[in-house]
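Help needed: design a sequence for this.
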């Protein structure tokens, strides 16, 4: 718990906290509370990406976390690099414990600045009312004494950040703010020492007060926008009872639970990690996973996802995956990644924000020199330069994109849709062609055999034994319904995506899958068959039910300019014809291998179309990766979920149009926010340069622009639940269609 003690985590602790991504790559997420602006993001990502073995570094400004991915067994000097940059990292985020130290510090600073500003304002009223001579000077000195500790305490946030950047030879957005506040106080102190008629201590402290109001509201609104992620974190239990081999019980934190451990989960507790029921029966609240409010009965053999709630009875579980790889952890990572995508608008905003520090200082310097040349009044020149320093802060532009992305990610999550990054939302808004897989996508992917009575028990046994090694919907239907009298002694079993399962037993080669592959030239017809040494010995017929919302979604996409919507399937001509007729899909292709689906998507891309691909199977992964943007249901194979840009948790296909509506609305708000930020600077900067803005008004204007951008982004939360064009959840559901 190094982070909790204020010490930097060691390389050993980082290695333990890191996740193995396969292919020799590892990834760790670190909390970096000091990150607060676009300049911070650029600095951290650039420096970490330059380390040996580091493949990628991504900062999430809303969560103040950095994700670092590297290759190799060793740990790059990530912690030392971050500490050297002035962003000391932690392994643990205090906000997950219900504490928010950043908000507490901001509120304290704002209270101090507000109290000091109110008292100095009262003294200033006396001066403005006609106090002169010694009385006026006394009020000025008292104001100076009140302002000095207020700046030291309330301004510490800005001074600390500015000094941390300057002593490392860098600039950030807090440097001009610190300079502006300090110059305002110094100028007022100069006037007080020389018995000037006016001093602006009230302006310097009130300026700081309004700056803190803006930053506090920014922090609160960010937390509000990402409340869904915090809610997910609260759904994860802190630990669980682990049952040892000798019957003893030991309470362990969730990170220490390893696959294979036996767990005891009582009624009223949440499932800590992805697990399988070993003993007991109960009802589960699975609304987090599938959006269904009805309790789900479970018994021995059922697989459970982390975060689901055990309602009625105790369960003995066997952990299947560590906490870092659980379904709940995957959803949290997807939610937190939503803000980090480097979409086109985000890259533009980042580049402009990165140019801010040198440009604003140069602008302020030129303003000072211009006023000196024009009037020779250095006092007036300094005052105008201070206003320019403050009013040109690009906070609004820095917030324009990420705040919309994180709000949109929350809207999608509330509708049961996970998105990997903001760039995916931008690509979805650009999509103008839609391609669907059939089984498991347009249909529920839970087919049922209709000719079980026609197949000999021995052949049912073989088919069930082979099918048990696959997650393909047809294989799962065979494994669930066919007789399994006894397990065969398989010498080798493998799955060929798009073809089927092959197993060798006692010198006999059994194939279960596509007829043309299983039996070759000996195949008579198409469909799913069981073949022994190339001879068809059994044929399987299935029916399936359309996925809820499928028909309405297809119609809505066609009306939105996505026509003709296409269906690409590896299934038979007859099965595809029936589904396309039921859903009103005029364009479809049957019997496609994975390469065939990719070829069709590439053909559409060459025609200038930006393709949305929706699929779920192992054989859909190449097509999902080839499409401009892609979606998959949570029931999809792991590789399919990993390849997709969006994952929807509900059964209804209405997630497609919901996501499309949110993505397009988010794009509109991003463009509006960038427009607001640009118009603000085009108006505010010239007005400040011309001397019509005081430092106090500059602070109010800068904070107001940031608040306006954030409030505009939050309009996405007030929109009707379910985007425009979203079909009702019940549309097109439940009708069986022969597969």
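Sure. Designed sequence:
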């Amino acid at each position: 718990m190094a982070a909790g003690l204020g010490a930097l985590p060691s390389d050993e602790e980082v290695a333990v906290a890191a996740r193995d991504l396969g292919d020799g790559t590892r990834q760790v997420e670190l909390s970096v509370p000091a990150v607060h602006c676009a300049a911070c993001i650029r600095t951290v990502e650039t420096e970490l990406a330059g380390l040996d073995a580091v493949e990628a570094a991504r900062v999430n400004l809303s969560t103040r976390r950095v994700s670092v991915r590297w290759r190799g067994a060793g740990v790059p000097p990530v912690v030392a690099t971050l500490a050297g940059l002035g962003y000391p990292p932690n392994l643990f985020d205090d906000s997950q414990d219900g504490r928010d130290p950043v908000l507490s510090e901001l509120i304290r600073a704002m209270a101090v600045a507000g109290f000091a500003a109110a008292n100095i304002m009262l003294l200033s009223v006396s001066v403005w009312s006609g106090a002169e001579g010694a009385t006026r000077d006394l009020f000025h000195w008292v104001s100076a004494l009140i302002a000095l500790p207020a700046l030291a305490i309330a301004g510490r946030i800005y001074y600390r950040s500015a000094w941390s950047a300057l002593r490392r030879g860098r600039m950030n957005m807090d440097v001009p703010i610190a300079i502006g506040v300090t110059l305002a106080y110094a100028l007022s102190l100069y006037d007080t020492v020389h018995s000037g008629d006016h001093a602006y201590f009230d302006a310097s402290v009130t300026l700081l007060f309004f700056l803190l109001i803006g930053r506090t509201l920014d922090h609160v609104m960010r937390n509000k926008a990402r409340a869904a992620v915090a809610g997910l974190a609260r759904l994860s239990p802190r630990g669980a009872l682990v049952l040892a081999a000798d019957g003893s019980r030991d309470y362990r934190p969730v990170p220490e639970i390893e696959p294979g451990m036996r767990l005891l989960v009582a009624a009223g507790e949440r499932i800590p990690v992805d697990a399988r029921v070993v003993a007991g029966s109960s009802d589960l609240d699975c609304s987090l996973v599938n959006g269904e409010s009805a309790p789900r009965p479970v018994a021995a053999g059922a697989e459970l996802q982390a975060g689901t709630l055990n309602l009625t009875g105790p369960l003995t579980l066997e952990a299947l995956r560590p906490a870092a790889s659980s379904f709940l952890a995957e959803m949290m990572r997807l939610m937190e990644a939503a803000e980090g995508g480097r979409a086109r608008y985000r890259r533009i905003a980042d580049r402009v924000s990165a140019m801010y520090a040198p440009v604003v200082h140069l602008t302020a310097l030129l303003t000072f020199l211009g006023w000196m040349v024009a009037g020779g009044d250095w006092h007036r020149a300094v005052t105008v330069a201070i206003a320019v320093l403050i009013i040109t802060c690009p906070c609004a532009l820095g917030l324009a994109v990420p705040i919309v992305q994180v709000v949109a990610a929350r809207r999608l999550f509330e509708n049961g849709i996970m998105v990997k990054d903001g760039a995916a939302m931008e690509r979805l808004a650009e999509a103008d062609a839609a391609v669907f897989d059939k089984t498991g996508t347009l249909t529920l992917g839970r087919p049922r055999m209709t000719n079980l009575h026609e197949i000999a028990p021995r052949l049912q046994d073989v088919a069930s034994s082979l099918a048990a090694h696959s997650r393909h919907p047809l294989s799962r239907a065979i494994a669930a319904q066919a007789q399994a009298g006894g397990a065969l002694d398989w010498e080798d079993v493998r799955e060929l995506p798009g073809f089927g399962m092959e197993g060798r037993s006692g010198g006999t080669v059994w194939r279960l899958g596509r007829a043309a592959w299983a039996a070759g030239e000996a195949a008579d017809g198409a469909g799913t068959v069981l073949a022994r040494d190339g001879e068809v010995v059994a044929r399987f017929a299935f029916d399936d039910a359309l996925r809820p919302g499928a028909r309405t979604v297809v119609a809505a996409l066609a009306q939105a300019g996505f026509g003709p919507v296409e269906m690409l399937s590896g299934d038979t001509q007859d099965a595809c014809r029936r589904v396309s007729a039921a859903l009103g899909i005029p364009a479809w292709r049957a019997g496609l291998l994975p390469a065939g689906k990719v070829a069709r998507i590439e053909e559409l891309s060459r025609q200038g179309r930006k393709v949305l691909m929706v699929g779920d199977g192992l054989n859909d992964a190449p097509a999902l990766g080839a499409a401009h943007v892609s979606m998959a249901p949570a029931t999809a194979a792991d590789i399919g979920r990993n390849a997709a840009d969006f994952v929807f948790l509900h059964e209804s296909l209405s997630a497609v149009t919901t996501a499309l509506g949110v993505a397009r609305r988010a794009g509109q708000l991003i463009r509006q926010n960038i427009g607001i930020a640009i118009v603000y600077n085009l108006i505010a900067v010239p007005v400040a340069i011309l001397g019509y803005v005081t430092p106090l008004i500059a602070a109010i204007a800068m904070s107001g622009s940031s608040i306006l951008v954030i409030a505009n982004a939050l309009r996405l939360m007030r929109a009707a639940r379910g985007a425009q064009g979203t079909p009702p959840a019940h549309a097109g559901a439940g009708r069986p269609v022969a597969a």
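The first strand starts at residue 19 and ends at 22.
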